Amino acid sequence: MDHFEANFDGLVGPTHNYAGLSFGNVASFNNADAISNPKAAAKQGLAKAKAVGDLGLVQGILAPQERPDLHTLRRIGFTGSDAKVLAQAVKQAPLLLNACCSASSMWTANAATVSPSSDTFDKKLHFTPANLVDKLHRSIEPITTGRILAATFNDSRYFHHHQHLPKHASFGDEGAANHTRLCGDYDNKGVELFVYGREATKLNAIAPEKYPARQTLEASQAIARLHGLVDEQTVYIQQNPAVIDQGVFHNDVIAVGNQNVLFYHEQAFLNTKEKLAEIQEKFNRTCNRPLHFIEVPTEKVSISNAVNTYLFNTQIITLPSGDMAIIAPTNCEENQAVKAYLDELVTLGTPIKKVHYFDVKQSMQNGGGPACLRLRVAMNATEVAAVNPHTLMNDSLFTTLNTWVDKHYRDRLSIQDLADPQLIIESRTALDELTQIMQLGNVYQFQR
Ligand code: SUG
């Protein structure tokens, strides 16, 4: 095969914890203050990534970020030694300290928006890190994300890296979680779908009432301009505000696509009929293949079941045989209605023939399913060959990373532990070693 959709999974960082930081993300809120297990979280993620690689897909790993983020704490006025900065922060501003300790970069579906070279103006693969401005703990990710992406896709002949969008609510951008690409073969032209929650510059625009809409139309349009996408291959769709208000904080909680399949809940979008017609028309003109819309009705799967099990935060992958499989969290298997739906789905005659379940509960408890944990990068063979090879999953990297996790990670972390200065030392020691394993150079602030 000479065209691939690679998945780059976020390696869970040593400070993985449950701080209830994401208003509008039901799991994050419900599990606030629970005790986390960073070691198990990292191993669950690695096992899932390795299994997808073993199914025959190109699989990569993106390094986590430096947390606690002492640099942000110093920027907001805490001074003295690292230990003193933590001690002051926990006393004066514990919630800000929590925000500076989140391992949220593990959800690499929010790392960036990626457009493959067959869609872009200069025939390079484009990356724009997401600014993640809606949540403080996530808004401190994009600079380091940009460095990690540049160290992973480190060949300017093939990869074009942009700066994140201006950090203002008008440009709220959550990356690939609100972006889907439909295509024939991965290296052929495709149709890029941008799903947004609100239009920032229009007065009285339709928007959710209870929870924030993190992605704006203006951000999606800016990405399409930066990547040089053409209108004939681009569709903008507004998310249904009523489902955002029920906990669907990203489109990838309610819809997922792969090649010629779009799998979505009937309540996912606004103006569904018109938008599906536009997708169909653009797809027909761009891609030489039948398109399958798989719409899941509320009577089979309610919005609350979709949010609680992450049925749509599954990965739809194409196996070397050409059949598609779904990578689902075990939470789907444990829910009667959702399991029944998935059992039926593989018999419907669509390209989806099989479901594989993985336990990623440490991530799920913060609202991150299998699809949140990965950034998809469609590539041709030349581009795959240009990727930093030390970031690509194989038996050796899998063993090395598991050993590295065993050596450095705790198996229990409470919110109170975030103020432990020893955690800074542990985290930095681990990440310094990781940059050598993955040959990333000095991507972290503490190394510069
Ligand atoms: O941004 N949770 C993440 C989950 C991101 C899921 N990503 C996708 N759907 N693509 C978020 O809400 C919780 C952190 C905490 O509460 O400790 C958090 O950031």
Fold and architecture overview:
The structure is a single chain. The protein has 448 residues and is of the alpha/beta class. The protein has a single domain (3-67, 102-447), classed as L-arginine/glycine Amidinotransferase, Chain A (5-stranded Propeller), CATH 3.75.10. It has 17 helices and 15 strands. The protein has a 3-stranded mixed beta sheet with strand order 2-1-15, sandwiched between helices. The protein has a 3-stranded mixed beta sheet with strand order 3-4-5. It has a 3-stranded mixed beta sheet with strand order 6-7-8, with helices on both faces. The model has no long low-confidence stretch (mean pLDDT 98). It binds N~2~-(3-carboxypropanoyl)-L-arginine. The site of N~2~-(3-carboxypropanoyl)-L-arginine (SUG) has 23 residues, from loops. N~2~-(3-carboxypropanoyl)-L-arginine (SUG) is lined by residues 17-22, 25, 28, 102, 104, 107, 109-110, 135, 138, 177, 250, 252-253, 366-368, 372.
